[in-house]
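User: I'm putting together a small comparison set for a docking exercise, and I want a reference complex before I start. The sequence is below, and the ligand is protoporphyrin IX containing FE. Could you produce the 3D structure with the ligand included, as structure tokens?
Assistant: Of course. I'll restate your input first, then give the structure tokens for the complex.
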Amino acid sequence: MLKLDRRPGEPPLDLGSIPWLGHALEFGKDAASFLTRMKEKHGDIFTVLVGGRYVTVLLDPHSYDTVVWDLRTRLDFHPYAIFLMERIFDLQLPNFNPSEEKARMKPTLMHKDLQALTEAMYTNLRTVLLGDSTEGGSGWQEKGLLEFSYSSLLSAGYLTLYGVEASPRTHESQALDRDHSADVFRTFRQLDLMLPKLARGSLSVGDKDHACSVKSRLWKLLSPAGLASRADRSSWLESYLRHLEEMGVSEDMQARALVLQLWATQGNMGPTAFWLLLFLLKNPEALDAVHAELKRIVWQAEKPVLQMTALPQKILDSMPVLDSVLNETLRLTAAPFITREVMADLALPMADRREFSLRRGDRLLLFPFLSPQKDPEIYTEPEVFKYNRFLNPDGSEKKDFYKDGKRLKNYNMPWGAGHNQCLGKSYAINSIKQFVVLLLTHFDLELVSEDTEVPEFDLSRYGFGLMQPEEDVPIRYRTRL
Ligand code: HEM
């Protein structure tokens, strides 16, 4: 399809200087800088050529709702997801019906099953964090903060969704849980580090071999046969496996699907906790405010946290300061692409009454990281972490943010929005809060060096969810006696 013959009402087109590739290199290298430049040149809607694809980028947050709630027959989330499924995870599901899969998954992650998941996560976080008090003795231990946060949350998250060694648990079974989930994390992390290159098809020959061997190892670790003997498996896993079997998916393909799900469910919580803890460690006033809230809500609760087998939802829902810290962390570090495939020629109405024509076969991309999340018109000093940005003076959650004098519905979009908003949002929020509570209750935690700066982003990760740092941050921690 030749784009040079522009039709009336189409967004400005920028082809870049390289035929077919267009802007692919700049886009892959640092999408945020590239899109900022394009926004300055063309405004808040434009079309760019990226590796043979025409991508229309929409950066007006007042207009996002039309896209995320549009009919799937016009704008569909799934074709791009299916492309990534094949490209990264070698997964093909011939009878794949995303709507049915979603309908099955939804009740197992939300509403009534949320409580069971949250309780299991708390138990597993305790196993992972507090299980073996003999391991490090009572002295200080040093580690990278990303490694510490990511491994703790992924290990506990894996045990929660994919099951544990034995039920009821014993000291021995918990030790096995720690070893096995640490193995899953280490292997997963090798794949995670290669993800941007895998998605862009830009791995070197040597890296390709490495990616193959890491994937094979993960498929073995998560094979349905291996998982069959695990105890306390989540209703999410039971229901997902039944769904795969009903579709007639082979055991090999099922293992690949389970690896994809490990990434989709566990790839963002650890990096979120990393940034959150780092911002707290770098902002003593914020850390004091969180401590004061925990003192009020958790440590002085009728039953002290040390004796609780779970943190009740009522307690988790009464932490506006920690909520604000989490929202501010996500505002600064969550940078997913919200992508929709244009399924038919259509007119896209903007909030300011302009209308743009989109062509069937093009891709539509929202990048809330640039606006609303980093928009100076919405957030003063948008680069700065302000722990109370999402708090009103009376301590309640602040929800009113404005652009062009109009109140915004979508002012922070780490979870996406509309039809495809994250199904695990409540579970993820509960899990991260439980992790922070356990950590601040049971551990002393500090930066190895006070002068440590907040590291730069690994710029290749724009679009994949949470940003990751270019390098890890050394911390020391010890169990509080
Ligand atoms: C901090 C943690 C997390 C973040 C920031 C996050 C973010 C997101 C985003 C941005 C989307 C895509 C929305 C779109 O394209 O419109 C998404 C989808 C999804 N997330 Fe999460 N997520 C997190 C954790 C989780 C967890 C823990 C689970 C499950 C246990 C989960 C399950 C899902 C599912 C199933 C979808 C697909 C929804 C659909 O098909 O419509 N997520 N998430």
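The chain has a mean pLDDT of 94. Residues 77, 102, 105, 109, 264-265, 268-269, 272, 334, 336, 338, 414-416, 420-424, 427-428, 465-466 surround protoporphyrin IX containing FE (CB under 6 Å).
User: Thanks, that's exactly what I needed.
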